[in-house]
Specification:
InterPro entries: Histidine_triad_HIT, HIT-like, HIT-like_sf. This protein is of the alpha+beta class. Helices cover about 30% and strands about 15% of the residues.
């Protein structure tokens, strides 16, 4: 059965993409810890990160690092937090989000989807895409070749 992330990746459900290549996508969490909270997800639906091939795991973490650099630059945070939880959706994903202290890792503080400021959400997405040189679908823009 397809996970919600597979449905987002396949454009069956809308997502706010920041990055995309053949193996990995990155899109905004609809219930973010902070604006800029991005999920880095392999295209292949694998439940546990420990079951990924070493090559895919390496690429996934490389993309997470790139997204983390964008989070710091765009959101102005001291660090980019990174968490692998995996209990909410049976599809490996890395949470990357702005962090200024350990308190920012508290998932009880997620913003409810209906309380998200959509304008700020969209502005942050646009700024992160600009930083990464990607288009609205997360692909590298042709003018960056």
């Amino acid at each position: 059965m397809d996970s919600i992330f597979t449905k987002i990746i396949c454009n069956e459900i809308p997502g706010t993409f920041i990055y995309r290549d053949e193996q990995v996508v990155a899109f905004f969490d609809i219930s973010p810890l902070a604006y800029g909270h991005t999920l880095v997800v392999p295209v292949e639906q694998v439940d546990r990160w420990t079951d990924l091939s070493p090559e895919l795991w390496q690429h996934l973490t490389e993309v997470a690092q790139i997204i983390g650099q964008a989070v710091i630059a765009v959101c102005g945070s001291a660090r980019a937090g990174e968490v692998i939880a995996g209990f909410d959706v049976p599809h490996t994903h890395i949470h990357v989000f702005p962090a200024n202290s350990l308190a920012d890792y508290n998932f009880a503080n997620q913003i409810a989807p209906d309380a998200v400021d959509q304008e700020r959400f969209a502005e942050t997405a646009a700024a992160m895409r600009k930083y990464l040189g990607t288009d609205d679908n997360g692909f590298r823009r042709a003018d960056n070749c």
